[in-house]
Amino acid sequence: MCHVLQIPRSTYYYEAKARDNHKENELTKQVIDIFNSSRKIYGQRKIKEELRKLDWTVSRRRIGRIMKSQGLASKYTVAQYKPTKTTPNESPVGNTLNREFEQQQELKVIVSDLTYVRVLQKWHYICILVDLFNREIIGYSSGPYKNAALVHQAFASVQCDLNQLGLFHTDRGSEFKNKLIDNALLTFGIKRSLSEKGTPYDNAVAEATFKTIKTEFINGRVFESQEELDRELFDFVHWFNNIRIHESLGYLTPIEYKMMKQSSQECNRTL
């Protein structure tokens, strides 16, 4: 009959399959729940991975249809903009890291950057320290001034022994060139690395992490006080490290990835 009517056989079989409305409604509910629990930032790929963990096998196209029908749009659809450029740090220190962003040892390389956030009618700033081993935010700070003291405060928030840190890599922002920072790095024996001037790709992981922070935490928000920013930043960092899955880590959280690697190393030592 398909041949007589000149229609593809696939069309007949597609129409012949009656959808299970109960199952479809349950899937829609799961997609909505995952989207909302991700703070409205997960797209089709991450939602598909979370559904897989719940024993759902669903295509990205189908997830996209559900998201469109429910009016679910990731925050990543919001346009980004760049802050005003400042005078670069002319230090002779070179790019020791050399874009080796895949590190197999915990705390061997730490990268950092700063970004801005609105607190009432003023700009405040956030500094983070990211471990390239598992993309974990190991230190962070926020305050009204974009200076070396903010970077020093981020180091002070790190929970591990600072003597374990191997290399500290940043761009050439003037806030990273200061006697306060130099003395801290010298005290703990931390080596230094700087991106080449005008080359953001040399600090790509920090840039990507801040794109995530801007999209998922900052955009569209005005904090009422520095205290509120501190409280909300603490909550976001905990979520980023312990709950948010990362595509670059095989859809694991930074803490899950670290525990998996530690377990693997223990097994290898036992063998």
Structural account:
It is a single chain. The protein is built from ten helices and five strands; from the N terminus they run H-H-H-H-H-E-E-E-H-E-H-E-H-H-H. A hairpin with a 2-residue loop joins strand 1 and strand 2. Helix 4 crosses helix 5. The N and C termini lie far apart (64 Å). The relative contact order is 0.12. The model has no long low-confidence stretch (mean pLDDT 88).
Give a short synopsis of this structure.
This protein is an alpha/beta fold and 271 residues long. 43% of the residues lie in helices and 14% in strands.
Outline the fold blueprint.
Elements: H1 2-5, H2 9-16, H3 21-37, H4 44-53, H5 60-69, E1 109-119, E2 122-131, E3 136-143, H6 148-156, E4 167-170, H7 179-187, E5 191-194, H8 204-218, H9 226-242, H10 254-270
Parallel strand pairs: 1-4, 4-5
Antiparallel strand pairs: 1-2, 2-3
Helix pairs in contact: 4-5
User: Could you spell the SSE succession in H and E letters?
Assistant: HHHHHEEEHEHEHHH
What is the number of E strands? 5
Which descriptor suits the 3D outline?
elongated
- Strand arrangement within the widest β-sheet reads 3-2-1-4-5
Number of helices: 10
How confident overall, as mean pLDDT?
Answer: 88
Secondary structural class? alpha/beta
Largest sheet: 5 strands, mixed
Helical content (DSSP H or I, runs of 4+): 40-55%
Alpha carbon gap, first and last residue: 64 Å
Tell me the Rg in angstroms: 23 Å
